[in-house]
Structure formats: C-alpha cells, structure tokens
Amino acid sequence: MKATKLLRQLLTCGLLLSLAFGLGCYRAPIAQRTLAPVLDYGQMGYDALGTHTGAVVILDPQYGRILKRVARGMDVQFTTSPFEVVQLVTAYAALDSGVITEQTKLKCNGSDELVDVTEALARPCPAFFAELSTKVPPTAFKRAAQVIGFTYYGTESVNASTTAMRPITAAIPVNISGADYAALTTRGVGMKANELHFAQLAISLASNTTTSERMATIIATTSQTITPPAIPINKQALETIRKGLVRSVEEGTAMAAGTRNGHVAGKVGSNDENALFISFAPADKPEIGLVVFLKAGTGTEAAQVAGRFYRAYFGK
Fold it and tell me: Could you tell me which residues come within 8 angstroms of residue 165 by beta carbon, excluding any fewer than 6 positions away?
C-alpha cells in the first residue's frame, strides 16, 4: 500500500505526530518568531553525531512534531529493537494496573539489593523488570506499549479518491511466555519499532498525552475512517516514570546527556551492535526532545550525542 500525497505532505510539514493540533504546518506567533533565535537543527544534529554512524530525530514535544531528522552513514528512517527502552513500557503497565506503586521495591540484579521503579529505570536492573514480567500479562504490556507511544497514525489509499487514516503499531511478539516474555519486557527481544514510534514515545513522556489524544481531532475532520477513542494517559504512572528518566541522567546510565544547568530526562538501550537513547528537556517543562540511534555504538555514546545537542541548544 502506497503512502498518499497527503502523507508526504504531512511528513514535509513535520506533523505526522501532531495532527490533532492543527491542519497545516505549525507556525509560531509572529512575536515569538521575531524574538526567538533561529536554530539550525540539522547542523546541530550533525554536529552532535560527530563521526558516529547513526540518526538523530529532533522533536518539539509541545506541538508533537518532528523538527528535523538527520543521519550520517545511514538512512534517516530506521527500525530497531527498543532494547532497555522497553522497560518504560513494562514499568507503565505495572504502575497503570496497580501491580506496583512508586514505593514498591524489588531485587535489582542477582544480589539481595532492593530498589524502587525510579532507580530500576535509572540503572541496569534487569531482574526488576524480569520480576514484573511475572506480574504483568502480555495483553497489558501490549496495551501499555500502544498507549505510551508505540503506535502512530499514517495514511493509506484504498483507491485514488479515498484516503484512510490508520494506526501503525510496532511489531510486538504475541503468544509468548516464560523466559521469552521476560526477555521482551526487559530487553525488548523480538520487538521492532521505527523512528516514528520512538518519536511518539518521547513526545508522550514529555507532554503527558497519548498518540490517540493527539490524533483524534484530525482523524475526525480529514479522513473517512472512524475516530478512535482518545485514550488518556495515566499521569500518575507517567510522573513516576519521568522521575526515573531524570535519575538516569543525573546519576545513572545516561549521565553523559546531562547539561550544567538544565534537567534532561532520558533512557538508554543497547545491544552488542547498536544503541538507542530517547530524551527530552527541560524535564519539568519540556521544549525539545531527541531520539538518537547509533550503529556500532554504545548507550553511553548515544547519550553523549544527546548531551552535545542539548548543550548547544541551551547554550550551556
């Protein structure tokens, strides 16, 4: 099924992720455009990547749009496992269903050390999320993934005169259990998502809204499909997760993304070959977000790319 002219226009406008906020390319108010500095996001992304082979997706979480996508040595479009970033889904599913609270403590790794979910998100704690896999059923995990970002809406043409808007969901294994399910909820094994899914995830975390909330209005006014219910996000669960993302940058695995005076929130994931980092800043009032993907890179290096971008953006 081919993307329609509408889809290409939406991608050009950077509004695939934010159609609910307007029908055209977003333009800041005249006063804001006059006073705000003009930033070359593309050059900032290239500078942040340095010599790494990878891609950077730069986001405006306030309006849910992609500002720029840049890549070096690869295409700007990519598909990958979420790696440990998937732990955000597992944590949300557990918090949303009441399986755990912010105060619940479980084992972090092989020792008897107990940590809460914010600390588990900030540092390597696979045992914590493996334990949650025994408490959160696959159906709840899949629903949580779709709610917090692993679904975006795209267009497809059934014929030349009809354009339909439909949800496009990340590939999530079904009918798995035991060790396979633990590997999914802990390291994202078997799950595949593209850059638009990760962009949606970062925007949801930063804006306290779900994809369906951001898309419901435009679907109702511009397509011939039924408007999906605007599923609200569990803000209490999300606030707990955001605390973990801040801790990850301040004291955990993503410290390389930190700035001197600004608060960045983010989560790294990696395997032996590639790395991923999603983030936004400032954590308390997000105005910019990033998805960083590196080939032959580490989680620390992906966080370093984000750190260089944020320091350039904030001038610190």
Answer: 153, 154, 155, 215, 218, 219, 222, 223, 225
Q: Could you tell me which of 143, 151, 146, 139 has the C-alpha nearest to residue 181?
A: 139
CATH homologous superfamily of 5-314: DD-peptidase/beta-lactamase superfamily (3.40.710.10)
Euclidean distance between CA atoms 264 and 251, whole angstroms: 12
CA distance 79 to 274: 11
pLDDT tens digits for 121-146? 999 999 999 999 999 999 999 999 99
| Distance spanning both ends of the chain, measured CA to CA | 46
Helices and strands, counts by H and E, the chain? 12, 11
Instruction: Identify the residue whose tokens are 């081919």.
Output: 2
Model's pTM, two decimal places? 0.85
Domain boundaries, the chain: 5-314
Q: What is the widest separation between alpha-carbon atoms in the chain?
A: 63
Alpha-carbon dihedral sign for residues 102, 108, 114, 119: negative
* Per-residue model confidence as pLDDT tens digits over 280-316: 999 999 999 999 999 999 999 999 999 999 999 998 6
Residue 123: CA count within 13 A, CB half-sphere:
11
pLDDT digits (tens, 9 = 90+) for 14-61: 444 433 333 333 333 333 333 345 789 999 999 999 999 999 999 999
